[in-house]
């Protein structure tokens, strides 16, 4: 009996120490405990694309002890508790309810991607502590169920396109909250928790007001009806008729208050301007010769560290610098355009940026400039030159762009045409054109409320970057029209050149399509259209589209093709197909021109056929 008891005890100990864990372990190996969590993750994997190979990496069970770990996933007790996919160029929109099955999720981050569409449904995720969706392209409103997340500690939604009102968050757990740089509106709810956060959590929203931002506008009192408010009116209880002099006094006070408020605001604004525009910065000009290595114009450094002026940045990954760093950088003139001069600036950190000093905008208010910069700076597309930062002062406006290393399309097509030049082949031309069409289609479609055209599409505003043998292009100087003081100034600058604009009509997307057609013809023929650039010595053609129409009339001839591509027989047919598109784009009647999305579709089709034929 004693022996038996000992044997049983030994067996129990042996079982609990070795056999049981082994069998649980093999159970985990053979079975997925929470398939609905995997299913939820599969939904994301299949609805977005990314530089991370999620299809290759997210295989097997996500929380398997022995399987290689899924990128961005952390598990605890066989449940997914953290999902972090940051800066991996996720594009597409998230399935609305996918998180609902990841019930133990505590940490969720999709920071620094290009996700569009609305925020996913977060309701019932009672364990959720951190939610980071900053620096994306999310639209829609902040879901009200967020205020019911009992353990929410951190919420970052800045730099998106969210609109609507902020729900009344009041979770005492909340220690980090940022909804800046969106399109939120209305009054910031006056809750104990939301009151804790400073202006930077809310600023740069189109129509948001209340503590800690500007107070919300109060409806002005009706001017001739005396207000019964306490300071001047007699006690309500007496119910006597007011003497006439009191009524007059009330009317005068009511009329004077708004004037005084405006005066105080004006004084504060003037003062802020003075602080922001140090005197030394206001001196100097940008008239030095092109290509000279020097400091930026107005380059007296502010020296005094107390007065260093911070610059706003759209991309957290760009090394941050301030105005002083920028003004101290060694600079070189890249070119002088109609809107101003562009410099390359080599910062002490080693980074190179392009800085455009903008002229003709002196009457522009700070608010107007900032609003437009915020709108443009958030537009992210591989075929747009990104705005990194900007600076406003009354005397000068700077726009800091990413530096694109290989010059402009104008330079590539028309400069150094002498012997020894490497010809720009058909494949390179097609790739450049396709990129321009992609950038333009994005500009026209990206923000539905944003009807502003590019309005300045020309070959010097198409910048080139080369990647080994292939050529790519990006658009710059886009959508400046709202910054120009008048129609006259845009006419003087020959912005948005299109027949209908010259006849006094409005600039629309169809004018951009016309300008795109002209660029297309420029790439096909290698000829410089009129007005493309300040006078240079190249062969110019009065009206490029008219000339091409004349040559191809009745006989689709290769005479129009640039001699550089005529030499090789590759791509002639495709070039003529592109010519057909170009002539439709440059139709005199705007309504007959195709949309940029349609143009892109047709160019992509030509590209596909071209690749199949190779
Ligand atoms: N982000 C940039 N990176 C590199 N080079 C640039 C950049 N922006 C402009 N450049 C160069 O500077 C030149 C002048 O540019 P700028 O925009 O000042 O004049 P523009 O192209 O004639 O346009 P606009 O007349 O509309 O002002 C361009 O042709 C290009 O070679």
Annotation keywords:
Leucine-rich repeat, LRR (right-handed beta-alpha superhelix); 6-stranded mixed beta sheet; 3 domains; Transferase(Phosphotransferase), domain 1; Phosphorylase Kinase, domain 1; disordered N terminus; globular; alpha/beta; 6-stranded antiparallel beta sheet; binds adenosine-5'-triphosphate; 22 strands; 32% helix; 614 residues
Q: Can you count the helices?
A: 16
Could you report the average pLDDT, rounded to the nearest whole number? 78
Which structural category do the helix and sheet elements fall into? alpha/beta
Overall CATH class of the largest domain? Mainly Alpha
Distance between the termini: 87 Å
Strand order of the largest sheet: 1-2-4-6-8-10
> Rg to the nearest angstrom?
31 Å
Q: What is the overall silhouette?
A: globular
Strand content: 15-25%
CATH topology tier name of the largest domain: Transferase(Phosphotransferase), domain 1
Total strand segments: 22
Concise structural overview:
With 614 residues, the chain is an alpha/beta fold. It has 16 helices and 22 strands.
Word description of this protein:
The protein is of the alpha/beta class and 614 residues long. The protein is 32% helix and 15% strand. It contains 16 helices and 22 strands. A hairpin with a 4-residue loop joins strand 17 and strand 18. The N terminus is likely disordered. Bound molecules: adenosine-5'-triphosphate.
């Amino acid at each position: 009996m004693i022996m038996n008891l000992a044997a049983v005890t030994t067996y129990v100990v042996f079982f609990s120490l070795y056999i049981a864990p082994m069998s649980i372990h093999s159970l985990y190996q053979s079975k997925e405990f929470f398939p609905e969590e995997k299913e939820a993750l599969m939904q994301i994997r299949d609805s977005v694309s990314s530089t991370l190979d999620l299809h290759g990496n997210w295989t097997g069970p996500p929380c398997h002890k022995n399987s290689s770990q899924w990128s961005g996933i952390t598990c605890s007790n066989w449940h997914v508790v953290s999902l972090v996919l940051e800066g991996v160029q996720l594009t597409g929109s998230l399935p609305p309810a996918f998180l609902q099955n990841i019930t133990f999720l505590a940490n969720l981050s999709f920071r620094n991607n290009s996700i569009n569409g609305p925020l996913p449904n977060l309701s019932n995720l009672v364990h959720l502590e951190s939610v980071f969706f900053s620096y994306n392209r999310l639209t829609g409103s902040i879901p009200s169920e967020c205020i019911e997340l009992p353990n929410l500690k951190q919420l970052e939604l800045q730099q998106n396109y969210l609109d609507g009102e902020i729900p009344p968050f009041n979770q005492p757990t909340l220690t980090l909250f940022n909804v800046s740089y969106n399109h939120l509106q209305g009054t910031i709810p006056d809750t104990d928790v939301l009151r804790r956060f400073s202006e930077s959590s809310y600023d740069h929203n189109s129509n948001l007001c209340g503590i800690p931002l500007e107070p919300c506008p109060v409806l002005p009192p009706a001017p001739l009806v005396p207000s019964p408010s306490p300071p001047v009116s007699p006690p309500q209880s007496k119910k006597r008729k007011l003497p006439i002099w009191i009524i007059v006094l009330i009317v005068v006070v009511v009329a004077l208050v708004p004037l005084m408020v405006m005066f105080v605001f004006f004084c504060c604004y003037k003062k802020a301007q003075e602080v922001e525009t140090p005197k030394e910065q206001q001196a100097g000009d940008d008239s030095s010769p092109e290509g000279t290595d020097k400091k930026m114009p107005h380059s007296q450094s502010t020296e005094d560290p107390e007065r260093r002026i911070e610059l706003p940045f759209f991309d957290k990954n760009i090394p941050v610098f301030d105005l002083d760093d920028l003004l101290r950088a060694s600079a070189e003139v890249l070119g002088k355009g109609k809107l101003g001069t562009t410099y390359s600036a080599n910062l002490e950190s080693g980074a190179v940026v392009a800085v455009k000093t903008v002229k003709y905008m002196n009457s522009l208010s700070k608010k107007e400039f900032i609003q437009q910069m915020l709108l443009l700076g958030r537009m992210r597309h591989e075929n747009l030159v990104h705005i990194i930062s900007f600076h406003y002062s009354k005397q000068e406006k700077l726009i800091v762009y990413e530096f694109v290393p290989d010059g402009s399309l104008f330079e590539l097509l028309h400069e150094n045409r002498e012997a020894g030049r490497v010809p720009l082949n058909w494949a390179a031309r097609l790739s450049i054109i396709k990129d321009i069409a992609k950038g333009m289609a994005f500009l026209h479609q990206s923000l539905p409320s944003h009807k502003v055209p590019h309005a300045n599409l020309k070959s010097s505003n198409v910048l080139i970057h080369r990647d080994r043998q292939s050529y790519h292009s990006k658009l710059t100087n886009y959508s400046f029209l709202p910054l120009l003081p008048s129609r006259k100034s845009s006419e003087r600058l020959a912005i948005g050149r299109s027949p209908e604009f010259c006849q006094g009509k409005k600039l629309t997307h169809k004018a951009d399509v016309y300008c795109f057609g002209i660029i297309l013809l420029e790439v096909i023929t290698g000829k410089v259209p009129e007005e493309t650039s300040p006078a240079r010595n190249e062969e110019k053609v009065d009206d490029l589209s008219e000339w091409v129409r004349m040559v191809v009339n009745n006989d689709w001839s290769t005479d129009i093709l640039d001699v550089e591509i005529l030499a090789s027989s590759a791509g002639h047919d495709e070039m003529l197909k592109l010519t057909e598109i170009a002539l439709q784009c440059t139709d005199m009647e705007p309504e007959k021109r195709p949309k940029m999305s349609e143009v892109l579709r047709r160019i992509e089709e030509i590209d596909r056929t071209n690749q199949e034929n190779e």
